[in-house]
Design a protein that fits this description.
The chain is mainly α. The protein is about 70% helix and about 0% strand. The protein has 13 helices and no strands.
């Protein structure tokens, strides 16, 4: 059946599509601008001549970046912490979220309310650092994994989602002799894929973009720097070179070239840092949207 559109409907659709197309372009353009500057002639990039289209296309910047040992080490650290941290955090959030739905859990309300309180009160940066130091988590890879295992907000989301699952499913399994662990693994976990996928995305993005823990806790071990920390170092070096160039006219050719290299390296590392996490979302989008909606119904 063909639906007739009024003039107002047509005008609304035109304005609506125009707005979202413009909004999409505004969101995409920074990544496009970054990319074309990484594959364009370095000297033209330094002069700010690359705005909409690449010129003098080459991929040497990426080749040079992946030959950088420090960057490869940082990439390995970031990838490993993202994979391990995401898996551990998702599993813990799922299991704890399931536990706090059980009325027979010992002091369930006390533990749950205690977890809620931690969302509103924090000791601050210095006590946090002191605690991490006392626990031996400075210059230690485990500092990337252990503190992020339990996330109260994720637990609340899982708890809310599980409560929306019909209780009859658990009751029938319990009558058949299934334990809590069996019910969780074979019934709750498969049915909770949408919310768990949502939590996995949050955890992965958080680990991938994490910067503060590396900057503060890994000062004595450069082999544990994350990609974001390494990018910060390149940004700082580029800024220092730029300030030096602005205050002195007696720079050598090698120093000037070094500054240009730092700028293109800065763009390239930023692109390498952004691309992987952007590629994850399209594969998880359908779970993400469903998990957000269902997990928030009773929030």
């Amino acid at each position: 059946m063909v639906q007739k559109h009024t003039v107002n409907d047509v005008i609304f659709n035109i304005l609506n599509y125009t707005f979202f197309i413009l909004f999409t372009l505004i969101c995409v353009f920074p990544f496009y601008y970054l990319f074309i500057n990484t594959i364009s002639e370095n000297s033209m990039v330094s002069k700010g001549l690359i705005n909409f289209f690449p010129k003098g296309i080459h991929f040497q910047n990426y080749v040079r970046i992946f030959k950088n040992h420090d960057l490869l080490v940082s990439l390995g650290v970031t990838v490993s912490r993202t994979l391990i941290g995401t898996c551990v955090s998702t599993a813990a959030s799922g299991f704890v979220g399931y536990l706090v739905t059980k009325q027979e859990m010992w002091h369930r309300k006390l533990f749950y309310r205690y977890m809620i309180v931690t969302m509103y009160f924090g000791a601050g940066l210095i006590p946090w650092f002191t605690t991490m130091q006392m626990l031996g988590l400075t210059n230690n890879y485990l500092a990337y994994i252990i503190p992020g295992i339990v996330n109260v907000f994720n637990i609340i989301m899982v708890k809310t989602y599980i409560e929306s699952i019909p209780a009859e499913l658990e009751e029938s399994a319990s009558i058949d002799g299934a334990s809590y662990w069996t019910i969780f693994i074979k019934i709750i976990w498969p049915l909770s894929k949408p919310i768990l996928a949502t939590i996995a995305i949050w955890a992965a993005v958080g680990h991938w973009n994490s910067f503060q823990d590396s900057l503060i806790l890994m000062q004595g071990n450069a082999s544990l720097y994350t990609l974001q920390h390494r990018l910060y170092i390149y940004l700082t070096q580029s800024s220092n070179l730029g300030a030096t160039m602005g205050s002195s006219s007696n720079l050598s050719e090698s120093q000037i070239q070094n500054m240009l290299d730092e700028k293109t390296r800065q763009y390239t590392v930023a692109m390498v840092t952004a691309i992987p996490i952007l590629l994850v979302y399209p594969f998880m989008q359908r779970y993400f949207e469903k998990g957000i909606m269902l997990g928030a119904v009773k929030g």
